[in-house]
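Title: Request for sanity check on Methenyltetrahydrofolate synthase domain-containing protein prediction

Description:
We are preparing a figure and want to confirm that the structure record we downloaded matches what your pipeline produces today. Could someone re-run it with the sequence below and paste the raw structure tokens into this thread? We only need the token string, no images.
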Amino acid sequence: MEPRAGVSKQDIREQIWDYMESRNLADFPRPVHHRIPNFKGASRAAEHFPRLQAFKMARTIKVNPDAPQKNARFFVLDSKKTLLVPTPRLRTGLFNKITPPPGATKDILRKCATSQGVRNYSTPVGLDSMVLVDLVVVGSVAVSEKGWRIGKGEGYADLEYAMMVSMGAVSQGTPVVTIVHDCQVVDIPETLLEDHDLTVDYILTPTRVVTTGCARPKPAGIVWSKISCEMMGKIPVLRSLRCREEQAGKDVTLRDKHRSLPGARAALSTVRSPRELPSLESGSVPGEDVPSSTVYVGNLPRDARVSELKRALSARGAAPSRLTWQGPQRGAFLHYWDPAEAWQAISRLQGFCLGANTARVALARQQGASGPAGGRAGEPHPDP
């Protein structure tokens, strides 16, 4: 099956999905649209995996959590290699290490390789773990014999790889494998590829193994200009990596980051109106309508001064554009230009102390019109 001329990535995805549905080439879940297809014959295709020299030499292997790669995960565990599985949509971190119980039989290992097993037998792997990944397995919707790959369109596989590059877990020489149905191997115009797109070195299907010999460079790290504030808000580990790269002097400007006039952020204004502010229980700040860009800092010393807090925030690289002081309530609201900066501040303020007190730091939540203490809609409150 070959794609039509002048197609887009989405055209190719739809063509593959429609073809597989019309010919009943996939197992549950159905329909395959907007998924990595759980194609019939996935287990047979994965049987090629342990025969690859790259597999035999690898000690630590990252395999995506999708259903068609279940058998690949089993082979990693059965070979007593270290299996890393990305957390779904990267919500709680980057990797989980799958650790079967002592003396696990093959049947138990097969359970460990399922989505339920990944949840039950996993431990998080942090950014400071110094993990080195020797082999990467990704899912695909379409792939070409040249190694060009198209995923389901959400960009998580590309982002996972770029994050692994940023944390030093992989290099340009780390092999990448994908496991697909034969009908998913199609011609893909190179013009559709972008710098952040991940390519593959091996394609495993139920009937063959394709060594692509792909010479196109793999992503060299996170392309921050492709990352949205919304994605930053959903992926905590991405915020941590951005903070690290910013401290290293890299350009971490986001795709939809708000621009301000030159010098507009130079002044740090303070709102001192404790009489007009409600108690800590409601914690609202009048007139504020962007709660996701506001951070609450609580449990400050009773004798803390706003100038002292400002200096401490600046020292942490978390100075806000505006600060609303709640001295009598031993707290303050820190207002940032966008959600990404707010999350970055939270990351930098982990373990933050002022005087002898460890501060409570959290994203302010939005209080609805019928919320407690009669707060107005759109007002930020401390997140409980």
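Thanks, this matches our download. The longest strand covers residues 82-86.
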